[in-house]
Amino acid sequence: MKLSQAIHKYIEMKHMMGIPFREGTQVLSAFSTYSGDISLRSVKKWQVLGFLERSISDVTWMLRCRILKAFFEFWLARDKLTQFPVPPSRLSRPARTFVPYIYSIPELRRLLRKIPLRRHSRPHQLGADTFRVILLFLYGTGSRINEALSLCREDIDFQLGTVTFRKATPNRSRSVPLGPRLCHILRQYDSLDAIQSDRKYFFARNDGRPIPAVSITLHFKTLRRQAGITGPAGTSRQPRAQDLRWTFAVHTLRRWRRKRKDLRSLLGVLGAYVGHVDLSSTEAYLAVTPERFLTQLSRLGL
Question: At 92, is the secondary structure helix, strand, or coil?
């Protein structure tokens, strides 16, 4: 049996059990692309390890390992494998240093200018207007990509100027205010003739169907290249759409500093806005504040 066939049957089994298995599908598809369409029996431990080592963080490494482990255990129990190709989980492996990319204002403007101005594309595609507004929303709210794509139309209240994330982590909703300019942009987008007025989700494809997170990731990767934005020299990690969340936080800290606000007391406010459950998560933003802000922050004892 080919690896692709085994993955397809495994995903079908999950769906028959009523399990959406979206994340698992993405991981298994990525592994198939990485390994090639080889036979299931020929998958080696070094191939699985090579795929896992492409993970950008320990959390991603463990998640992918868990999904692959369950997949191969399923086929091992059905005598489709002669060996178990998944390496042991290395909980004690040295922690990796995750350094997000913080975009400058000129870089953000360059990204937006590179988005095509065309408004009409095929029904199953992500429209240029939608993509542009999603990026503005991610930067303007510091939300996670999945949070933004899960928003329904009723989750944005234009009268109150608020957005409610009902599928926030961990399993609790939060309502936060929108800036006037962003609220105006969202109102304009919601009234565009190019998008379906009866769609369920606020951000949707041209045919009204939900947008998969991977679509934003891939579109942004192309956009970033066209804008000529690359990561620091000496690193293979390139800026991502997810880094707009970190950029929002760091730019917020910068604005507060300019207004001589007490950053220590406002960290809790920032954490509540972006959906953190503890202060330590929010304090991580201080660790990635660009070098040009570190001197100012150090004066506050942060």
Answer: coil
Which pLDDT band, with edges at 50, 70 and 90, does 18 fall under?
confident
| Single pTM value for the model | 0.62
In a domain, 209, yes or no: yes
**CA 16 – CA 114 distance, rounded (Å):** 43
Tally of structural domains, the chain: 3
220 shares a domain with 109: yes
Q: By residue range, what is the domain housing residue 48?
A: 3-76
Return the bridge partners of 173, or none. Answer: none
| Alpha-helical regions (H) of the chain | 3-16, 22-35, 45-52, 58-76, 105-114, 128-141, 145-149, 180-190, 213-227, 243-258, 263-274, 279-287, 291-298
Regarding whether 223 and 121 lie in a shared domain, the answer is yes
Highest average pLDDT, of 121-135, 235-249, 258-272, comes from: 235-249
**Alpha carbons 60 and 52: distance in angstroms, whole number:** 8
Same domain, 219 and 254: no
* pLDDT tens digits, one per residue of 192-233: 766 666 788 999 887 888 899 999 999 999 999 999 999 887
Query: In this structure, is residue 10 part of a structural domain?
Result: yes
Nearest to 80 by CA among 46, 42, 27: 42
Residue 215 lies in a domain: yes
Tokens 């495994």 sit on residue: 10
**The pair of three-digit structure tokens given for residue 169, joined into one six-digit string:** 């982590």
- Which among 45, 246, 55, 239 has a CA at the least distance from the CA of 138? 246
pLDDT in tens, 54-108: 876 677 888 888 899 999 998 988 888 888 999 887 554 554 556 788 899 999 9
Q: What is the pLDDT of residue 141?
A: 92
Residue 164 identity: T
In a domain, 149, yes or no: yes
d(CA 130, CA 195): 9
